[in-house]
Design goal:
Oligomer: heterodimer
Structural class of chain B: mainly alpha
Distance between the termini of chain A: 21 Å
CATH architecture of one domain in chain A: Alpha-Beta Complex
CATH class of one domain in chain A: Alpha Beta
Helix content of chain B: 25-40%
Strand order of the largest sheet of chain A: 1-3-2-4-6-5-10-11-9-7-8
Radius of gyration of chain A: 21 Å
Strand content of chain B: under 5%
Low-confidence stretches of chain A: none
Number of helices of chain A: 15
Mean pLDDT of chain B: 91
Largest sheet of chain B: 2 strands, antiparallel
Structural class of chain A: alpha/beta
Shape of chain B: flat
Largest interface: A-B, 68 and 49 residues
CATH architecture of one domain in chain B: Orthogonal Bundle
Number of helices of chain B: 3
Radius of gyration of chain B: 23 Å
Order of helices and strands of chain B: HHHEE
CATH superfamily of one domain in chain A: Amidase signature (AS) domain
């Protein structure tokens, strides 16, 4: 039998599985072998789940034989190590959770399992999803497959890198301030953050509960649509999920660019955007216009600039409360000495958390502390209202808002790791979308300095179908999403 | 806005995070730099603006109070560092 081509999309694997070209078991074995071979170069995984993958693949083969039509049956998937997996270590890339084995699957994983997907492993991330480079991982940084001296973005860097390097066709990340879209951009693949409330947070290690959303990575719009369809929807275990019906996310694919009104907030892009990124985005705007989309330049989003400070108040505040649970008593790393309970707790946390996590816990604790609550947290929550109103007003005239995903391309490992203010600027275009609670997608739109550039499209609440329509239309007239990074050594 | 080392140590105590003297100095510089970025919010008029806690404007989501299967004790204790007689063992909080 000829070797399995692992460079194809999930939907092409699905077709070949049904054509009997290979079994889900053979696909899982080939995928595990490639992932293992790439790991010394990429470090995209914290845990590779061989036994689980093979068992799930055999179950998928039974379903395939019975004629199951589900698009994910037998499809290999990577899952960010922030999502609880029953019986499989879940670390959030933190020393404080090393060795933690959940007794439950999170809802997203439960739905992936029900859809017949094959979990290849738990992917690397910035500790507790706090970061934009995957350098803040207790298990070492993930490398960008386009240039191994550079970061893949973050925090879902492992999930993005393994899809870009053709390790797995699809993966799951989470996005609190850009953690799906920015690594998708830096790795040259697609990544979608859903409307807040579209995907259940139950069983996902909490960072900032009013912002966190899990979502899909893939190499074309159809794979992203199919994966989103499998994980989206109301969940009785998460009261912030909304009982809005889950559509077929390919429902608008046939429309192409027809009827799309795209707004460009030029004033947001005046400063700080790399020339090569700007050029690629301008070309993408021209492509939209040339193919029948109505492009409206110069829309105004003045409050969006304030989203960065709003985010760096709200997210650390919520994190400081969420991460209070890591006390060295109930689970996770526990400092065995200390003269009393309080010292043991402080030492467990001081030694268990990395530098960026401590920074954010401290920042949030300060913003919520007596005398500062009104000046920081309450003020941020009010500006948040203004940002939401601003997007709602903008969407009266346009269906999508277009910007770069990130102001630059993948930076070198170590370049920004000790400069939090420079690091936070990576998320200038992605953060306002989380603050407003609306959906956004990053799609490949070109290269600068030989590295991928991402285009961000943002839409109205629960209009993920429109984002995917645009991504599909753009992908049908460009081939940026098909470019692949140089092959990695395969031992 | 510049924080003092004493303020950083106070925040660390509130957060129950042990920090070394080197960390106090690094955090003092870095947190002060981040707080400077927050100053731009002072220029935004929010006098008539209500705060938003989350984007959905959901209110009081409720469900029926029905008995459901819960985690067995052995499972719940599986990840605890120290247990004794089916309980989590903690250090004395009173001397």
């Amino acid at each position: 039998m000829p070797p399995i081509d692992l460079d194809v999309t999930a939907h092409e694997h699905a077709r070949r599985l049904r054509a009997g070209e290979y079994t889900a078991r053979a696909l899982a074995e080939a995928t595990l072998a490639r992932v293992r071979a790439q790991e010394p170069s990429l470090n995209a995984y914290i845990t590779v789940t061989d036994a689980l993958a093979l068992a799930q693949a055999e179950a998928a083969d039974t379903r395939l034989k019975a004629g199951d039509a589900g698009p994910l049956v037998g499809i290999p998937v990577g899952v960010k190590d922030l999502l609880s997996t029953k019986g499989v270590q879940t670390t959030a890339a933190s020393h404080i959770l090393e060795g933690f084995v959940p007794v439950l699957d999170c809802t997203v994983v439960e739905r992936l399992n029900a859809a017949g997907a094959v979990t290849i492993g738990k992917t690397n991330l910035d500790e507790f999803a706090m970061g934009s480079s995957t350098e803040h991982s207790y298990f070492g940084p993930t490398k960008n497959p386009w240039d191994l001296s550079r970061v893949p973005g973050g925090s879902s860097g492992g999930s993005a890198a393994t899809v870009a390097s053709r390790g797995v066709p699809i993966s799951i990340g989470t996005d609190t301030g850009g953690s799906i879209r920015q690594p998708a951009a830096l790795c040259g693949i697609l990544g979608l953050k859903t409307t807040y409330g579209r995907v259940s947070r139950f069983g996902i290690v909490a960072f900032a509960s009013s912002l966190d959303q899990a979502g899909p990575f893939g190499r074309d719009a159809l794979d992203v649509a199919n994966l989103l369809g499998a994980i989206a929807g109301h969940d009785a275990h998460d009261s912030t999920t909304v009982p809005v019906p889950v559509p077929d996310y390919t429902e608008r694919f046939a429309r192409g660019f027809d009827g799309l009104r795209v707004g460009v907030p030029d004033s947001l892009m005046e400063q700080g955007v790399d020339p090569g990124v700007r050029e690629a985005v301008e070309q993408a705007i021209a492509t939209f216009a040339a193919n029948g989309a109505q492009v409206k330049r110069g829309i105004e989003l003045p409050a969006a600039r304030a989203a960065l400070p709003v985010y760096y108040i709200i997210a650390p505040s919520e994190a400081s409360a969420n991460l209070a649970r890591y006390d060295g008593v109930k689970y996770g790393f526990s400092y065995p000495d200390g003269k009393n309970a309080e010292e043991a707790m402080a030492e467990s946390r001081g030694r268990g958390f990395g530098a960026e996590v401590k920074r954010r816990i401290m920042l949030g604790t300060y913003a919520l502390s007596a005398g500062y609550y009104d000046a920081y947290y309450l003020k941020a929550q009010k500006v948040r209202t203004l940002i939401q109103r601003e997007y709602a007003a903008a969407f009266a005239d346009v269906d999508l808002i277009l910007t770069p995903t990130s102001p630059g391309v993948a930076f070198r490992i170590g370049e920004k790791v000790d400069d939090p203010v420079a690091m936070y600027l990576n998320d200038l275009y992605t953060i306002p979308v989380n603050i407003a609670g609306i959906p956004g997608i990053s799609i490949p739109c070109g290269f600068s300095e030989g590295l991928p550039v991402g285009l961000q499209l943002v839409g109205r609440p629960f209009e993920e179908s429109t984002l995917l329509q645009a991504a599909h239309a753009y992908g049908s007239v460009t081939d940026w999403h098909q470019r692949r990074p140089p092959a990695l050594p395969e031992a | 806005m510049a924080l003092t080392a004493e303020e950083v140590r106070h925040i660390a105590t509130l957060a129950r995070v042990a920090v070394s003297p080197e960390e106090v100095e690094r955090l003092r510089v870095q947190l002060s730099g981040i707080l400077d970025q927050f100053q731009m919010l002072n220029d935004i008029d929010t006098s008539d603006v209500p705060p938003t806690a989350q984007s959905l404007n959901l209110h009081s989501v409720q469900r029926h109070d029905e008995v459901q299967a819960s985690l067995p004790r052995s499972e719940a204790l599986k990840n605890a560092p120290r247990t004794e007689d089916g309980y989590i063992r903690v250090r004395a909080v009173l001397d």
